[in-house]
Amino acid sequence: MPRLMAASSHRVSFTLNGRVVSGEAEPRMLLSDFIRHVLGATGTHVGCEHGVCGACTVQIDGAPARSCLALAVQVEGADIRTVEGLAPAADRLSPLQNAFRDNYGLQCGFCTPGILMSLDALLDERPNVSEAEIREFLSGHLCRCTGYASIVKSALAAARQRREDRVYA
Amino acid sequence: MVAESETTAEPNGWVGRSIPRVEDAALLEGRGRFIDDLGVRPDLLHAAILRSPHPHAEIESIDCSAARAADGVFAVVTGADVKALTASLVVGVKAPIECWPIAIERARYVGEPVAVVVASDRYRAEDALELIEVTYRPLPAVVDPLVATGAGAPILHPAVKSNVIGERTFRYGDPDSAFASTPHRIRVDVHYPRNSCTPIETYGVIAEYDPGDNSYDVLANFQGPFSLHPVMARALKVPGNRFRLRTPPDSGGSFGVKQAIFSYVVLISVAARIAGRPVKWIEDRLEHLAASVSATNRVTTLEAAVDTDGRIRALAFDQLEDCGAYLRAPEPATLYRMHGNMTGAYDIRHVKIRNRIVLTNKTPTGLNRGFGGPQAYYPLERLMQRIAIELNLDPLDVIRRNLVPANAMPYRTASGATLDSGDFPASLAAAIDAGKLGELIARRETARAAGKLYGVGFASVVEPSVSNMGYITAALTPEERRRAGPKNGAQATATISLDPLGAVSVQVASTPQGQGHRTVLAQVVADALGLRPQDIRVIADVDTAKDGWSIASGNYSSRFAPAVAGATQIAAMNLRERLARVAATQLNVAPADIVFAGGRVAARANLDNALPFARLAASAHWAPGTIDSDLGQTIRETVFWTPPELTAPNEADEINSSLCHGFIFDFCGVEVDRLSGAVRVDRYVTMHDCGRVLHPAMVAGQITGGFAQALGAALFEEYAYAPDGAFLSGTFADYLVPTSMEVPEPVILQRESPSPLTPLGTKGVGEGNCMSTPVCIANAIADAMSLTSLDLPATPTKLAALIHGRQNEPRVKS
Amino acid sequence: MKPAAFDYVRAESLDEALDVLAAEGADATILAGGQTLVPMLNMRMARPRVVLDIMRLPGLDRIDIAEGAIRVGATVRQRALERQADLGKHQPLLAAALPWIGHAQTRNRGTVCGSVANADPSAELPLVLVALRGEIELRSRRGARRAAANAFFTGIMSTERKDDELIEAVSFPTAHAGAGYAFREIGRRHGDFAIVACAAVVDTHKARLAIGGVADRPILRELPLPGSADLTDALDAFAADLDARDDLHATAAYRRALVRRLGLQTLQEAAACRA
Ligand code: FES
Ligand code: FES
To answer: In 3D, which of A146, A111, A154, A100 has the Cα closest to residue B746?
Structure first.
């Protein structure tokens, strides 16, 4: 039974966007800080550190969750996905990302990475998602710029696109 | 009915089309460059701030010894240290009060900084905060602005002997005669609450000090106005050229709020100086809610002299503005930003205003989207509804009878603003028609027949943009202004550069926080030079050491589209004109016959007689000798533009407080749930005339975004304090920002009356719904529940008490 | 907003976990989904010496539906229970209440037993457990025991769990034939903690209503059946007895009014959907 002592740092490793990564963390280090400042993946943002705003949302073993409400040491061995893992290639956006660009689903873009990680999971789970379901799922995120209308539109457009891609794939 | 994006090429250019934003790809891939994402020096340290738990207390002692000795700690900074190295921040009224970025001997609001720990990381810095021993002697606190004005109230700044630190009265026309000779006096009393737009990214500062030349170098997600640059430099006791301020390329929303970071810029700069190393501070959300900044809360009595047909002859405002514990620059600007347009969209010639500024034990106030608009329009538009009810008139008729008529444009208001363009009655009529008001009224009747509490509300406002840097001096008497020297104008600047490969770069000091400035400027410049937006690179973040800027720079008062884009347009046209003359020589035609199109510069009569744009643009680098010497260079063009209409306040205290005035007419239907008292906005229609539209989708985004914030202010959000000064809204579970479940999509309607005063005919658009929507919703609630008075936020518990409270709580049989 | 320092133990067996709890007592805090604990750590409102992560304990991730009860193990996430096939058939009250817990993103991490252990007076799962008269299974080095939900919750975020005990599972009784169930809640925004939450169970001859968000813990009361003349008085008395308090989001009077009105609606709905 490992006991990780408070005063020292410990090796944590997990899969981040398909690659095994590792770094040193004290037991108290939040996953959000670990991803951003130890691993240098700054696409995941921090807006409240108490689990309300959703800016820090990542996928942990496929499920969107607040990275500010997890300790880095807790996710040892897990499969983590962040916004950096969404695009199929550096110069190509995923259908979801494209939908956000086409529908002006972002302004400052600070809330966006968390929202993308949530919607990516939602659209995987429910290809025929309705506007009501999208709004309910989105309610776990705060956006101060858009008033949400364009985000909902982006999500609906992405769902449509993903369904079409499936048909023609 | 949000404007649709257009994807087909239009012959007459890029401006006016909703092209994809150049900002988006990076933001969508997690490659944004927000302040906490940027590379830092290896010796960087991290700050955490100890804050006062008391609303009002003497600080008897601070023992930092244990904190200084703690693991990883490099410095602990207290008020005494800051006082030794800096000067008080400038205060905008003539009163003997000081304003420091940290408590000096006395704390005056919950959350006021008391000490700063600088440590190797944020975790250790926070550990050390717990080791600082502060002895406080609590003092009685006052949070209610009316109580604060009274005799016997605790005094925040003993040197002033009163909490009222400024008072001015204004008189335009002959209000007293108008009141005496008009049949009706109708009045509203309003307590407008405190709230804030709480950007999702908090404040961030990275500061370093070079003792070698006594200079500070600071990166902060500051939004402007850069009139605060001299305030910061003075506080740090260095000349402006030794205070280099830079902003990061991306900023996670601001809405005015990141103006108030400036006091933390000073504080963290001092901490870096004391620590001898660069220091970074990222504000956390608890700090942000308690102590970043708030909009002002205001107590207003507004009385109107009204004819029997609803025509308003005169208005009398009595405004008590609560700026919190200190008057922090640029306050009392919130109180004066609307000064020229206090009569809103109405033709009212007689006005008197009493303005008082009071300090209370709450967070200091500052910029916040709408800035002064919500506080001013709430009483005015509530009054319009009250006039209709008390005189038994249709509320729309009351609005119509008072609107400034189209043929009066440009219209000079009683208090000195110029309403530059628009046909308000036509916009109103178009909104009623296209927004289907008739259907909404029918919906109300059906709902009421079914026993529901359903109401319809209206609001019509003018939305000012491009602030006159001189409006704030209306807080001073004409005599004080004479002594201080004139302040006016709104310098906007833009620089366009051509590189040796002939590519075009644009630099502006507009510090966007998500508004897509880079995209819009690429459109503007592409049109001027016959290029595509993707050919233009735009930089909108600022480095005060290298870029063109003025005190009016920054992202506030909706100045981007009218002023910054306008200055950019002028710079592009200047450059184009000079390039045309160069091309004219080479193509052997007159300069007037040169056209810029499709990436080429050609003779109008023979489009084959042409040069690639890039080749022409590069020529000043490679072959300056081929350019006529009286043309100067064609490498870089910097333009400063300030509208001559923005003059200083005159002896009669008339002030053209803003350059442009858009028009907004809103109406909405709401249902109040009889069980819970919760308000549901059923339908919201918002008509905007913001002049020429540069990018329809972005305008729509500004409107839906502002609408959501305003809905929050109307129904959910409040920085609440207990009567003893305790702060109650300290987390995002207490300060309630509406989510996708609470915010419906508004119906957006538009008309375009170009402004005659701006280079592109544009006006601001970002703030309007923060001004119109809170009162529009309130009017609908008042209509639903037949309320005479209503203060925001209209919470379920407040409304339910009115719904159920009429029958008393049942007595319980025991 | 960063946690104070603590040791972290990732228990790999139940015995190990119980050893840590026996040795550390109140200095140890159990970490499961972390959706309540981690914000408290971040705000330094919780300052444990040891954080005991139980999420890798084998065998506690099961949902067993048998013998009249839905038994949910210590590491089962709320989202997993929400997705359990036919949950609404087995216990409609539980199925109705689960979507009201926070947001999907927090239910993906938060555990069912963790919510019970934290005993927030506004939380949905303790309320449902009380309404259904469920049970909590506790285990320590000293042995195992079962606690009745009604007696388990003792106040705001406090229960009668001893410091050395671990909640191994909670059991929700399955639906009775002939009984109707309903859940209603009013909060400020979607996903917020309840200002008032009501869980009702109605069968042919009795009705009971549990109220969350008002008293310092969920409170259950037997009430006259909907439709009977004395229900209104009984609800009034219930509302008055709950010791409602004012807070930022609602006054005590508002809460009492909702108990009476929403409570009545919930009972009526339960009666109407009696199988
Ligand atoms: S930063 Fe994690 S939810 Fe706000
Ligand atoms: S785009 Fe700025 S917070 Fe959502």
So the answer is: A146
**Percent helix, strand and coil across chain B, each to the nearest 5:** 30, 25, 45
Which of C5, C34, C51 minimises the CB distance to A70?
Answer: C34
pLDDT bucket at B11, cuts 50 / 70 / 90: very low
Q: What percent of chain B stands above pLDDT 70?
A: 98
At B351-385, the pLDDT tens digits run 999 999 999 999 999 999 999 999 999 999 999 99
Entry field: residues in chain C: 275
Mutation choice for A interface testing from B7, B29, B35, B202 by most A CBs within 10 A:
B29
The rounded Å distance from CA C36 to ligand 1 centre is: 13
What are the pLDDT digits (tens) for B107-124? 999 999 999 999 999 999
CB contact under 8 A, B201 and A108: yes
Cα–Cα distance measured from residue C33 to residue C136, given in angstroms and rounded to the nearest whole number: 18
Going from the Cα of B649 to the center of ligand 1, the distance in angstroms, rounded, reads: 46
Kindly give, in sequence order, each residue whose CB lies less than 8 Å from that of residue B248, ignoring residues fewer than 6 positions away.
B33, B34, B35, B37, B38, B204, B219, B221, B541
Q: Are B457 and B514 within one domain?
A: no
Are residues B805 and B682 part of one domain? Answer: yes
Tell me: the pLDDT tens digits for B749-801?
999 999 999 999 999 999 999 999 999 999 999 999 999 999 999 999 999 99
ipTM value greater than 0.90: yes
Token pair 């800080």 in the structure block, residue: A33
Domain-located, residue B715? yes
Q: Establish if A36 touches chain B: CB-CB under 8 angstroms.
A: yes
Residues B200, A106: C-beta atoms closer than 8 Å: no
Taking the centre of ligand 1 as the mean of its atom positions, its distance from the CA of residue A68, in whole angstroms, is: 5
Q: State the closest ligand 1 atom to the C-alpha of A66, by its place in the atom list counted from 1.
A: 2
Q: Which candidate, B677, B662, B684, B699, places its Cα nearest to that of B774? A: B684
In a mutagenesis test of the A interface, which of B740, B741, B769, B770 is the best target, namely the one with the most A β-carbons within 10 Å? B740
* Inter-residue contact C127 to C212 (CB < 8 Å): yes
Are β-strands C219-223 and B243-246 bridged in parallel, bridged antiparallel, or unpaired? Answer: unpaired
Compute CA distances B613 → B169, B504, B536, whole Å.
59, 10, 13
- Residue B808: pLDDT band (50, 70, 90) is low
Which domains occur in chain C, in start order?
7-53 (3.30.43.10), 63-173 (3.30.465.10), 180-272 (3.30.390.50)
Domains of chain A as residue ranges with CATH = 10-85 (3.10.20.30), 95-167 (1.10.150.120)
Question: pLDDT per residue over B304-328, tens digit each?
Answer: 999 999 999 999 999 999 999 999 9
**Model-wide pTM > 0.90:** yes
Same domain? B572 vs B680: no
Domain membership flag for residue B444: yes
CA nearest ligand 1 atom 3, residue: A51
Q: Whose CA is nearest to atom 3 of ligand 2?
A: A143
Task: Please tell me the total count of domains within chain B.
Answer: 2
